[in-house]
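Standup notes
- DV: blocked on the single-chain target, sequence here:
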Amino acid sequence: MNILLLSMPDSFEHMPAVGIRMPNGALTSLAGNVDPHHRVAVADLILVQDRVRPAVCQLVRDLKPDIVGLSIMTFQRATAKKIIELVRSLRPEARIAVGGYDPSLAPEAYAVPSPGRADFIARGEGEITFRDLVRAIETGGGYENITGLTYRCGDSLRCNPDRPVNRLRSGELRLPKRSARVLRGYTLLGWPVDVVETSRGCTFDCSFCSIIAMRGRNFHTFNLERVLEDIRDARAHGARALFIVDDNLTLEVRRFEALCRAIIDAKLNTIRYLVQAMTSSIANHGETLAPLMRQAGFRYVFLGIENILEDDLEFLRASSKNRERRNGQNVGNATLAAINHLHRNKMFVVGGLIVGNPGDTRESIEANLEFARRYVDWPYIQHPTPYPGTPMTADFRDRGLIISERLEEYDGTTAVVRSEYLTAEAIEFQRWRAERWMKVRHMPAVFRQSPLFLLRHWYRMMSHTFRGSRLRTFLGLEDERAAFERYRAIRRAERDYLDDGDSGKAGPRSLPARALSD
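- DV (later): unblocked, structure below
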């Protein structure tokens, strides 16, 4: 059978698309785990944000898919439903399957008999569920024994039992099939980039986290030989930078140290690595861990700082993962110690902060922004967002703080909840106003790493960072809120990736024919 797997074009706006375009690793993992005689194409629509409709039209026309699968996050739901309707209009006989965070946590959104409904919903981890679904469709067998699957049966909907999380060590999951990708252009500041995973899950219970809501509190790891094989495969497909997408790689520090040594021994440390990390792990083990990370090729570390104020950390349920310990005793917040270890070893800190919590005031938000100015190399500052199934959502709803139910705005940088003291608009304006200039400060470091890239693209990057601003803004001849309102209008317009004015023809910027004929 012909299978087309799509990720959505909607992206977080922390970086312009010219600076960062990451692949969806889940889709290539699905492609690698269906039976090999099927013809699978993977298309990350973030690579064609300016021509989504013609791109999908050409993909469907050329591949003639029997099954179309979509990977969807909450803020991508509206776009996904439009794409589903477009696919149905082009190929009515195709079966539509959806998966990812949003369908797993809000399956009813894709089940009701309305535009954008799906035939199948793969809940939780999708590789084995999707493989078994493809087999059932191919053979005409039933779906009732496929765990993790919700499916349509006539006018009714049937929900099979959940599939237990994969323990990963069994070898049941094959490597991702990167050759299935039919679009090109993944980049991180000019480096060809890919993603790998070494583990799945987390045992903490942060109130904002969709991972726990989807799979529970657990942590399972691939063996290191498989991880190295995956890294080699990514390099063979052109990657020179790798984002390790584990939910919490630093949960087992000794294993992470072993991974670093394995990367060094395998001479895979010429690749630039990015990773997400807990502040407590880096702070408590940084003396030995940070030098090893640097030697293994790690360059950027996303630190889940979350917030520097204890009351906010309590609300986010993130206090325990931000504790520094000495001699078995808690000695305070781990953030500064973690940052110092990373900076001493010439790694950049991407600071993950969340502002706009229920008790936040202008002063508490400013304290976090000032911390980011002083210590963080690249800000990744978000607002608390009530994603389906998370404890945070119930809390905000009980307090009456949610001010927007427009899910396309649930992108992390659009404030959709207010605090007890500030409007959502005031919270977002305060972050927006400060964060732009923090990003500018990192440009000299980008130039040292990728001078040709920055010389070529600096204008587009700055234009993205300062969207809405004009010369009058910089000269102080207009209130910054006027620029902020223009920025918000631009963001609203950007979310319509399937403008009805688009034609269904790919035109001169058509997709590479060779990619679709593999």
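- Follow-up: Residues 280 and 320 are 8 Å apart (CA to CA).
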